[in-house]
Design brief:
mainly beta; four-stranded antiparallel sheet; seven-stranded mixed sheet
Length: 126
């Protein structure tokens, strides 16, 4: 199993930026496809972005395309989510997750992710 810890959340004004990090430990990080999900109060947890094991492919929810960028550094066992031009509707708890069997066809499927972090709060004020 891989253990995941998110960081970098906080309070930011609309139009601002934040960079989330997800630090992994316990197993070979490059063996896992990685994803970001978010959950707003009263809503289901939704897909935000994902990246394949070696970083060759990424995928984004339509709501964040052009504003968010997912990346990973396998040498540092860390994944990132750069969030620009933040909007109040981006307010949520953001979770990172790991999928050891990820393919480009499964990147958005929440049930495929076996390991989850505890989440980090992102609040965007208007």
């Amino acid at each position: 199993q891989v253990q995941l810890v998110e960081s970098g959340g906080g309070l930011v004004q609309a139009g601002g930026s934040l960079r989330l990090s997800c630090a992994a430990s316990g197993r070979t990080f490059s063996s896992y496809g990685m994803g970001w999900f978010r959950q707003a109060p009263g809503k289901d947890r939704e897909f935000v972005a994902a990246i394949t094991k070696l970083g060759s492919n990424s995928n984004y929810a339509d709501s964040v395309k052009g504003r968010f960028t997912i990346s990973r550094d396998n040498a540092k066992n860390t994944m990132y989510l750069q969030m620009n031009n933040l909007k109040p509707e981006d307010t949520a708890v953001y979770y990172c997750a790991a999928d050891p069997t990820m393919t480009t066809a499964t990147m958005k499927i929440r049930a495929r992710y076996a390991n989850w972090g505890q989440g980090t709060q992102v609040t965007v004020s208007s």
